[in-house]
Amino acid sequence: MATPLTDQEKRKQISIRGIVGVENVAEIKKGFNRHLHFTLVKDRNVATPRDYYFALAHTVRDHLVGRWIRTQQYYYEKDPKRIYYLSLEFYMGRTLQNTMINLGLQNACDEAIYQLGLDIEELEEVEEDAGLGNGGLGRLAACFLDSLATLGLAAYGYGIRYEYGIFNQKIKDGWQVEEADDWLRHGNPWEKARPEYMLPVHFYGRVENTKSGAKWVDTQVVLAMPYDTPVPGYMNNTVNTMRLWSAKAPNDFNLKDFNVGGYIQAVLDRNLAENISRVLYPNDNFFEGKELRLKQEYFVVAATLQDIIRRFKASKFGSAEAVRSSFDLFPDKAAIQLNDTHPSLAIPELMRILVDIEKLPWDKAWNITKRTFAYTNHTVLPEALERWPVHLVEKLLPRHLQIIYEINQKHLDSIAAKFPGNMDKMRQMSLIEEEGVKRINMAHLCIVGSRAVNGVAKIHSDIVKNKVFKNFSELEPEKFQNKTNGITPRRWLLLCNPGLAELIAEKIGEEYVKDLSRLQKLMKFVDNETFIREVAKVKQENKLKFAQYLERQCKVNINVESIFDVQVKRIHEYKRQLLNCLHVILLYNRKLI
After folding, report:
1. Any idea what the Cα angle at residue 39 is, between residues 61 and 121, rounded to 5°?
2. Bridge-partner residues for 306, per DSSP?
3. Can you tell me the distance from the alpha carbon of 544 to that of 559, in angstroms, rounded to the nearest whole number?
4. What is the DSSP letter of 19?
5. Is the pLDDT confidence value at 393 over 60?
6. Is the predicted pLDDT of residue 412 greater than 90, yes or no?
7. What residues have CB less than 8 Å from 167, skipping those under 6 apart?
8. Residues β-bridged to residue 241
9. C-alpha distances in angstroms, 540 versus 3, 405, 504, 535?
10. Less crowded by CB within 10 Å, the N or C end of the chain?
11. What is the rounded CA–CA span in Å between residue 499 and residue 493?
12. DSSP assignment letter at 225
């Protein structure tokens, strides 16, 4: 039976983890000791594995900072079109190992930590997962950020800095028990708070019609504090930014008559505002029409659009002073991708900014808005599609409801002109559903307000186009596209399966790490017995590691010679886990395994 590689063998193994130079190792050891002393204020006598993890994380981050600053300077100087990926979820996972791989530092860090008498795998295990997502939707966002940075594109991820991510699952007596994921309790070495870019977000209030247009007044204000996380590309010196917003209460209390009890209560009530970024909703395939969720969706959208417009106005190629005042070029300088309907309020919010604040005529503002947004649909499950009750939107965002009604009226007018008298089509395509409780169909809003709509697999995109949104695709067929989900090979091959990554690199070179189409070169080894044996050896080593992990974690012993059928995903009917178990039993009964 194959045995897992020793740390020593592993260190020698992978060329794509970076060259181990004596200077590199010495520099990392020096940085590690400096951070242990000055950042963590510890020495080796009292330091814990967590302290060592933080010292290593800060040391690796030091190698990011210069590249991060230079990347942002370059974007400011060149003023390229920027991509903004808006998502309520970013399932980033752990950062340390991924950063070492993308900077080509893994071997040097491995050797430095080994020379310091520590086990790097033990330190990597200390890191908390940034579990700010439920599954595919959040992980797609994370993979996109990695790929955009690796391609050197000027891209930004915008989301919420949830204090509590996806719950930790425990199985007790055969039942699931959820535990809160307090992932920030020890601090996060990768993020940088940016209080200087804090922005106000408004809720509630009423709309006043004045001579100069509509005004949204008497609102409640919550502040959005940005936290920036670097996103390094693979071996290319590009470091992009993921900016996550945290809700903060403003400091001004309305205390008409000061008294101690009132002051104390006002301080305690700050929690209500800050609850907006407290917790991730633990569901991406079921719509819950809760007011807090709607607040989260508008919170991220309002803060992000202010940030995007600030950057658009301040950036102008070849000039540090000039400030853009015209929005004509906005769609040529900003592309905003909506990851499902969760950030769909960005459409009426951009219209509100352009019409009410920047005083653009409606038609011009709508043309700019439509050319700026694109929408990714993730699900066709009816129970997952967002349909917000009109009365809730009217209470929380009264001006936005007016704008949505206006968008819908003009949309229905154009349908009536094309299909006179066809009330069924108008009802089916309306942004407002009239049956029962009046609701806003957010997917319809996204389709009407975007230049492109995509599904995430061919079969899914076909259903979106030919069934769920058939009326819309018949009206604007050029708008509907397919973009099959991909995954980043840096995390999902180099990091997760280093043995296989190295074997492939030995056979076809290292270029495949940035271009997976190069894997076609492996076709010539399809009947090569030596290669087949080497792949089997890697697989067997991985099975043995998994068996050892299972024994450690669950006290379960499994036969490593048996077939492993693994699904790493949530338990849900549509994911067919039970069907898969029945299939395993069927195969067993047929004596095929």
Report:
1. 55
2. none
3. 9
4. -
5. yes
6. yes
7. 178, 179, 180, 181, 282
8. 156, 230
9. 8, 60, 16, 9
10. N
11. 9
12. E
Alpha helices, H only, 151-290: 260-274
| CA distance linking residue 124 with residue 53, whole number of Å | 7
What is the pLDDT averaged over residues 396-407?
Answer: 98
Q: Are the C-beta atoms of 473 and 466 separated by less than 8 Å? A: yes
Residues 358, 360, 363, 366, Cα dihedral to 10°: -20
Asked if 488 contacts 144 with a C-beta cutoff of 8 angstroms, the reply is: no
Length of the chain equals 593
Q: How far is CA 304 from CA 18, 86, 394, 550, in A?
A: 36, 8, 22, 42
Confirm if 344 and 305 have CB atoms less than 8 A apart: no
Compute how many other C-beta atoms are within 10 angstroms of the C-beta atom of residue 435: 7
Continuous H helices in 325-441:
330-333, 346-352, 362-372, 390-396, 398-418, 423-429
Which residue is it, tokens 């990091």? 495
Cite the DSSP H helix spans in 41-190.
49-78, 96-103, 106-115, 120-126, 136-150
Q: Which two tokens stand for residue 538?
A: 């890697």
d(CA 324, CA 31): 43
144 CB-near residues (< 8 Å, 6+ apart): 85, 155, 157
What are residue 172's DSSP bridge partners? 175
The answer to whether 71 and 238 are in contact (CB under 8 A) is: yes
Strand partners, 199: 224
CB 95 within 8 A of CB 53: no
Give the C-alpha separation, 32 to 407, whole Å: 57
Q: DSSP per residue over 198-236, as a string? A: -EEEEES-EEEEETTEEEEES-EEEEEEEEEEEEE-SSS
Distance CA 233, CA 239 (A): 6
Q: What whole-number distance in Å separates Cα of residue 105 and Cα of residue 28?
A: 9
Tell me the pLDDT tens digit for each residue of 253-269: 666 666 788 888 888 88
Is the distance from CB of 276 to CB of 247 less than 8 angstroms? Answer: yes
More reliable by pLDDT, 265 or 75: 75
The two tokens of residue 278 are 């407290």
Look up tokens 């979106």; give the residue. Answer: 464
d(CA 498, CA 17): 9
- How large a percentage of the chain has pLDDT more than 90? 81
Locate tokens 């340390």: which residue? 96
Tokens found for residue 167: 């719950």
User: Quick check: pTM over 0.90?
Assistant: yes
Q: How many C-beta neighbours within 10 Å does residue 592 have?
A: 8
Paired with 214 in beta bridges are: 209
d(CA 373, CA 375): 7
Cβ atoms < 10 Å from Cβ of 371: 15
Residue 40, beta-bridge partner list: none
Q: What is the mean pLDDT of the chain?
A: 93
Question: Which residues contact residue 188 at a Cβ distance below 8 angstroms, ignoring those fewer than 6 apart?
Answer: 128, 130
**Rounded CA separation 266/255 (Å):** 8
Q: Residue 8 — pLDDT band, cuts 50, 70, 90?
A: very low
